[in-house]
Amino acid sequence: MTTRNTVAGPEIVAQKTEPAAAPPAVCKDALWRLPVTVCRITDFLGAQTSRTLLERVIAVGDGTLQPSTVRSTRDVDTSIRRSRTDHGFDAPELLAAIDEVREVVEHTLGISCAGTEPRYGLNVHNDGDFYGPHQDSTHDFQPERVLTFVYYVNQTPRPFEGGALRVYDIALPVHSEGRATWETRTWRDWEPQHDSIVFFRPSAWHEVRPVSCPSRRHEDSRFAINGWMTRVAQASA
């Protein structure tokens, strides 16, 4: 009788498959943060032109400057904004320079200023002055504003501290039931450097940080010429 040797194969053991764990839910309070684009140009007008403009700014008297107002109500509310404004200040050399760079600014910000005209004024911040977080335009408030610009013209070296332009990032809730406010946003500060200009969309949340000017002299103030490219109202047919 012949005996056959058999080799046993590997034992197959049935594995119990566990159900896949459900992915964790996204936090209901999560925010999508998107930096706001700001175009900044230094040495914008050049040494001679900016110095001449500074002399005109300093020459603006107290009788011309008025307490700055807020929003469409045009009320003076020093809990929101404290500064002085000259709405009639004229700076044609600044407008000419803005016109030269307008095309590249439009391309960078993804806007068009066709059919707009500039509206602007001089704003003066001295010791303790500020402007709290706000927008220059919304769907209901000043919707015709297309572009914001702020030009800084100050003594050098700078005789004040603070006064940075703080621009807040966009913050959108991941879930529609969430809610984002400007207080929850991150930001970037832009220093008020002499002969520099910044451009950004008017819908961006921004503020002027408090100014410290120990001398309290008018000529040592934070001077800014700020305004907007604004759509011209079309006459009805």
Outline of the structure:
With 237 residues, the chain is an alpha+beta fold.
**Main beta sheet: strand number and arrangement?**
7 strands, antiparallel
Principal-axis shape: elongated
The helical percent reads 10-25%
What spatial order of strands do you see in the largest sheet? Answer: 2-13-8-16-6-5-3
What's the number of extended β-strand segments? Answer: 16
Distance between the termini: 117 Å
Our Rg estimate from Cα atoms comes to 29 Å
Task: Give the overall pLDDT as a whole number.
Answer: 88
Q: Structural class of the helices, strands and pairings?
A: alpha+beta
**pLDDT < 50 runs, ≥5 residues:** 1-7
Which band does the percent of strand residues land in? Answer: 25-35%
String of helices and strands: EEHEEEHEEEEEEEEEEE
Number of helices: 2
